[in-house]
Amino acid sequence: MLSKVRASALDALADVPDGATVMVGGFGNAGMPMELVDALIEQGATDLTIVSNNAGNGTTGLAALLAAGRVRKVICSFPRQTDSFVFDELYRAGKVELELVPQGNLVERIRAAGAGIGGFFTPTGYGTPLADGKESRVIDGRGFVLEYPIHADVALIKGRLADRWGNMVFRKTARNFGPIMASAAKISVAQVEEIVELGALDPEAIALPGIFVSRVVAVGKHAARSAA
Amino acid sequence: MSHTPPKYVAWTRDQMAARIANDIEDGAVVNIGIGMPELVADHLSPNKEILLHSENGILGMGPRPAADAVDPDLINAGKQPVTLLDGGAFFDHSLSFAMMRGGHLDIAILGAFQVAENGDIANWSTGKPGAIPAVGGAMDLVVGARQVFVMMEHLTKDGQSKLVHRCTYPLTGLGCVTRVYTDLAVLDVTADGFAVRELCQGLSLDALQSLSGLTLAAA
């Protein structure tokens, strides 16, 4: 029987090694797999490279992982936010490395890793400091920059529902990076509100087929969702 | 050096936003950037159907919800709560940036630190040491949208023109801005530099040229 269901978030992350590259879904807190990040903090892996759109908000989730001194490098598009003080302080103190990537290049590099693409030419960033040192090419009169895939050891994502084969549906703008990151990691771990029976998900509505999901954990409804 | 008080009346931010909203055609697909451009949404005519795109996976974004209807899973690019219009859709980041980069958006409206007369834009970093750089989706929007509108004050707080011959801040994109809306004027970017479409009340083309330090064409 094929079942990707794990008993707990900690259980699902037991084998994350030190030095791992970890993708973390979410755009701000929408789609942020908060329980999985908490479990990663508890699990203890360190010297991590984090790939995520932002670099933590407030003092929870990614910010807590950073504050615990477990992150060597952040690859993201938008670290600076009104409540990104944990990252800001570490960055200014030289305690965390930053690779800033335009958001569309970030998602396309992740997509390329999952889709088996060796690199791609994108117009985004051409002629800017974020393309410094990168190969470029003029194609049909337009400038493009060569970008390479970003692979991960582990992806942590959040969905609404999953079945035991790992098929998933998402909720509103919490989908964002989730399905793409799941395709780009050796082990992709999903937290969902609830695990449903095979056949309960509408096959036309499955936004992430189970082939891309290694492990699933049910965490119940997040407190932040209660207002909905 | 003698100072004479300006005789012109600069547009308010709401008046700037209203001008932009008025120039958006019925049926257009538009991405409104974070910051000053957010005001444009408040001025869109109910008589036009304008589809708002948000980079985090919304087409057909609606206004902010009532306080008791806030949903943390439904936010805009500025991470503020929004709603979805009937006919709206959600999608993942890859598809969202395909819309942006792939030339499917009619208009992107952004703020900027500087716009150059060759259409270059600088809006993501002042390059100051110690500043935390952040770029988000700006570089994708400027290369991909069919028209790129910039909404910004004409002058910095210390009176420097934000319209420039060539940008001195780190670039966001090359030759991509099509129109600039400032508190003093509306200008098109043409092959020959800026062309003035409209001036605020009491401002002459000569006075605007003097403030901008640039030669400007009358449209």
Tell me what the structure shows.
By secondary structure, chain A is an alpha/beta fold. Chain A has a single domain, classed as 3-Layer(aba) Sandwich (Glutaconate Coenzyme A-transferase), CATH 3.40.1080. Chain A is built from six helices and 13 strands. Chain A has helices at residues 9-12, 34-43, 62-67, 85-92, 103-115, 178-183, and strands at 21-24, 48-51, 71-76, 97-100, 120-122, 136-139, 142-147, 152-158, 161-163, 168-169, 185-192, 194-196, 215-218. In chain A, the strands form three sheets. Chain A has a seven-stranded parallel sheet with strand order 4-3-2-1-8-11-13, with helices on both faces. In chain A, strand 6 (136-139) and strand 7 (142-147) form a beta hairpin. Chain B has 219 residues and is an alpha/beta fold. Chain B has one domain (13-184): Glutaconate Coenzyme A-transferase (3-Layer(aba) Sandwich), CATH 3.40.1080. Chain B is built from four helices and 13 strands. The longest helix of chain B is centred in the N-terminal third of the chain and has 11 residues, at 13-23. Chain B is globular, with a radius of gyration of 18 Å. Classes of the chains: A alpha/beta (228), B alpha/beta (219). At the A-B interface, helix 4, helix 5 and helix 6 of A face helix 2 and helix 3 of B.
Keywords:
heterodimer; A: 228 residues; alpha/beta; Glutaconate Coenzyme A-transferase; seven-stranded parallel beta sheet; 6 helices; 21% helix; globular; B: 219 residues; ten-stranded mixed beta sheet; three-stranded mixed beta sheet; 4 helices; 13 strands; CoA_transf_AS (chain B); transferase (chain B); NagB/RpiA_transferase-like (chain B); 3-oxoadipate CoA-transferase beta subunit (chain B); CoA-transferase activity (chain B)
Query: What oligomeric assembly is this protein in?
Result: heterodimer
Strand segment count of chain B: 13
Query: Into which percent range does the helicity of residues of chain B fall?
Result: 10-25%
Question: Cα distance, first to last residue of chain B?
Answer: 32 Å
Order of helices and strands of chain A: HEHEHEHEHEEEEEEHEEE
Secondary-structure-based class of chain B equals: alpha/beta
CATH architecture assignment name of chain B: 3-Layer(aba) Sandwich
Mean pLDDT of chain B: 95
Keywords (chain A): Transferase
Pfam family, one (chain A): CoA_trans
Family (chain A): Belongs to the 3-oxoacid CoA-transferase subunit A family.
Protein name (chain A): 3-oxoadipate CoA-transferase alpha subunit
